[in-house]
Design a protein that fits this description.
The protein has 166 residues and is of the alpha+beta class. Strand 3 and strand 4 form a beta hairpin. The model has no long low-confidence stretch (mean pLDDT 97). The structure holds FE2/S2 (inorganic) cluster (2 copies). The site of one FE2/S2 (inorganic) cluster (FES) has 11 residues, from loops.
Length: 166
């Protein structure tokens, strides 16, 4: 099958590749770019494990063909930590608040929460729950994921994190 040459920016670096028209973006990211932090849970736009940030929007990368991302600016979980390895506030929050168990949903959750906090620096619990409603977690029951995002929101805003009484 004829292949198309595509270029895009991923985590700040220019990348390119030859892809078939049917190649999904998530497969391009995982197989061509060898960035396997973006997970595949369903390939049917249901679970959110494949979420990446594209041109300032959360996108399920199993929902797009790679050719549709030609020219895009993409951030994956590999681009969340600083160059010196310092964890992003969200990564720290998931660690500190035990926001993961098996970890399969975690990259998609963190990338989704990143965009959520870009759009709303101080979300309520309801806004967090609504904001991550496209990302499924089979393990945690979500409570600690919400706390992890609250932790990150507080850290980014420079205020102490105070856990709500249960
Ligand atoms: S793998 Fe894309 S939404 Fe599940
Ligand atoms: S931590 Fe296992 S699916 Fe979320």
């Amino acid at each position: 099958m004829a292949k198309t040459h595509i270029t895009m920016k991923v985590n700040g670096a220019e990348v390119e590749g030859l892809v078939e028209p049917r190649t999904l973006l998530v497969h391009f990211i995982r197989e061509n770019l060898a960035m396997t932090g973006t997970h595949i849970g369903c390939e049917t736009t249901h679970c959110g494990a494949c979420t990446v940030d594209i041109d300032c929007m959360s996108v399920k990368s199993c929902t797009m063909f790679a050719v549709q991302a030609n020219g895009a600016d993409i951030r994956t979980i590999e681009g969340m930590a600083a160059a010196d390895g310092t964890l992003h506030a969200l990564q720290e929050g998931f660690r500190e608040m035990h926001g993961l168990q098996c970890g399969f949903c975690t990259p998609g959750m963190i990338v989704r929460a990143y965009r959520l906090l870009q759009e709303n620096k101080n979300p309520t619990e309801d806004e967090i729950r609504f904001g991550i409603s496209g990302n499924l977690c089979r393990c945690t029951g979500y409570q600690n994921i919400v706390k992890a995002i609250q932790y990150a929101a507080a850290k980014i805003s420079g205020v102490p994190f105070q856990e709500a009484a249960e």
